[in-house]
Amino acid sequence: MTLSTQQLSRRLGALPTPNIGDAMERLGVLDASIKPVWPGARLAGPAFTVWTRAGDNAYLHRALAEATPGDVIVVNGQGDESRALMGDLIGARARNAGIAGFVIDGAVRDAAGLERLGMPVFARSISPAGPYKNGPGSLAGPVAVGGVAVLPGDIMIGDEDGTVVVPRARAEEVLLAAEAVRVDEDERMRTILAQADKKESGVAGACVAR
Ligand SMILES: O=C([O-])CC(=O)C(=O)O
Ligand SMILES: [Mg+2]
After folding, report:
1. What is the tens place of the pLDDT at every residue in 22-50?
2. Is the ipTM of this complex over 0.95?
3. Would residue 187 count as lying in a domain?
4. Which structural domain, as residue segments, surrounds residue 79?
5. Cβ < 6 Å from ligand 1: which residues?
6. Which residues of 119-146 are buried (b: 16+ CB within 10 A; e: fewer)?
7. What residue owns the CA closest to ligand 1's atom 3?
């Protein structure tokens, strides 16, 4: 079976991130401080990588011009929380370009505007402080984000629990393993809930007998 990046992103994006992390020996999970900036944000897609000087978003603007529809823009912002690297204006331009979302090791702003746009953004923090726009930075190389190495094209998945990175070279194997984790957990949950139901009806039965 050889799945396209789009198929892999769609199927991985349908799985909870904990199941994907478990399928990678619990590795590949970004630092827990990198969280969705609005509730319900979810993303899945190949990484378009950006490395920028702390607090400077010149290279995010360049990334918008070069990324492909469906890409997730992944930014090593040095973990700096003092200046927002993007907000709803960049978010709106990204939506026009078909970008699937952002994962940022740094801060962002305009959280309410990003939610209105439906643009999924995962970041270390939210700050009203604006960015500098001078560079330097670089595009489309390996980056470190939330303590995990990301190569261009690796598949990013984000949901309410956080963000995981699936190396592109292992994506199909990880997808199948993660789908198996999901099936197994669904089965275990059914068993656990059925035990609770049995116990409840036992209690009800005891009450009736008394
Ligand atoms: O001013 C900036 O570059 C970041 C920002 O708030 C936006 O994109 O709306
Ligand atoms: Mg703004």
Report:
1. 999 999 999 999 999 999 999 999 999 99
2. yes
3. no
4. 5-182
5. 57, 84, 86-90, 109-110, 130-131
6. bbbbbbbbbeeebeeeeebebbeebebb
7. 86
Q: Retrieve residue 8's tokens.
A: 């892999």
Please tell me the distance from the alpha carbon of residue 130 to that of residue 132, in angstroms, as a whole number: 7
Q: Is residue 65 part of a domain?
A: yes
Closest ligand 1 atom to the C-alpha of 109? 6
- Does residue 72 lie within any of the structural domains? yes
- Kindly report whether the global pTM for this prediction surpasses the value 0.80: yes
Best residue among 52, 82, 90, 121 to mutate for probing ligand 1's pocket (most ligand atoms within 8 Å of CB) is 90
What residues contact residue 38 under an 8 Å CB cut-off, 6+ apart?
A: 111, 112, 114, 115, 121
Residue 154: partners with Cβ closer than 8 Å, 6 or more residues away: 46, 47, 165, 166, 167, 168
**Domain-located, residue 151:** yes
| CB of 46 closer than 8 Å to CB of 92 | no
Where does the pLDDT of residue 209 fall: very low under 50, low under 70, confident under 90, or very high at 90 and above?
very low
Distance 94 CA to ligand 2 centre (A): 13
Task: Write the CATH number for 88.
Answer: 3.50.30.40
Residue 169 is classified by DSSP as G
What is the domain count for the chain? 1
Which residue in 132, 171, 135 sits closest to 153, CA to CA? 171
Q: Which atom of ligand 1 is nearest to the CA of 60?
A: 3
